[in-house]
Amino acid sequence: MEIVTLMTAGFEPAIEAMRNPMNSWDKSDSFVIRAMVDPEEHYEVGVKDKELSKKLQTAGPEHCKHLRMVMVWADITAPRQWWMEFDTYRHGVEKVSCSTMHKLMARPLRMDDFEHEPGCEPMLDSIIRELNRKMYEYQNAIDVDTDRAKEVWREIILLLPQSYLQKRTVMMSYAALRNIVRQRKGHKLKEWAMFIDWAKSLPESWMIFD
């Protein structure tokens, strides 16, 4: 499993919106840092704003609505069994995936197309060889026997292991991440532990974990 952070955004408007209910913008102590050596701006959440955010987070999701305005974009490459569980989350989550339907047959499958544990290589290698054999049969049938090609394609899809890796570009709010982390902490799938470790690396990750 691999997770690459593409972008995080929304901290400044989220903190400002957090103070809307009490019109307490004058108490905000967050600020933008502009370094001479770095053209990128960095928004620093102040101590008072952090205290208020944590207070709202403790009060519950209906009170920390500002976390819905903080977004992260990431490329996630993960096995199908993990994506099946991740697809449970739809609130504050958008996904655009690489297409198994359109691109699975683009080239022969390799060992690194699958998540696997040490010792499982011989069994996986056998599966890959069988899948590649059927893919070769599909390529030969596609122009001469459409019905057979459809049958073989379905056989390949049914045989494809859950360990097959798929890449998706995912957009999530910090509110969604907070919910995911709470529900998946300690899960037996190691991919969830990897996902949570990644979430800890994000800017202002205390919004997700505290």
The arrangement of helices and strands along the chain is EHEEHEHEHHHEHHH
Low-confidence parts, pLDDT < 50 over ≥5 residues?
none
User: How much helix, percentage-wise, in residues?
Assistant: 40-55%
What number is the mean pLDDT?
95
How many individual β-strands? 6
Strand order of the largest sheet: 1-4-6-5
Q: What fraction of the residues are assigned to beta strands by DSSP?
A: 15-25%
Distance between the termini: 26 Å
Q: In the CATH hierarchy, what is the architecture of the largest domain at level 2?
A: 2-Layer Sandwich
Q: Look at the structure and give the CATH class of the largest domain.
A: Alpha Beta
Note the topology.
Layout: E1 2-9, H1 11-18, E2 31-34, E3 41-44, H2 47-59, E4 71-79, H3 80-86, E5 93-97, H4 100-103, H5 121-141, H6 146-159, E6 165-173, H7 174-184, H8 190-200, H9 206-209
Antiparallel strand pairs: 1-4, 2-3, 4-6, 5-6
Helix pairs in contact: 5-6
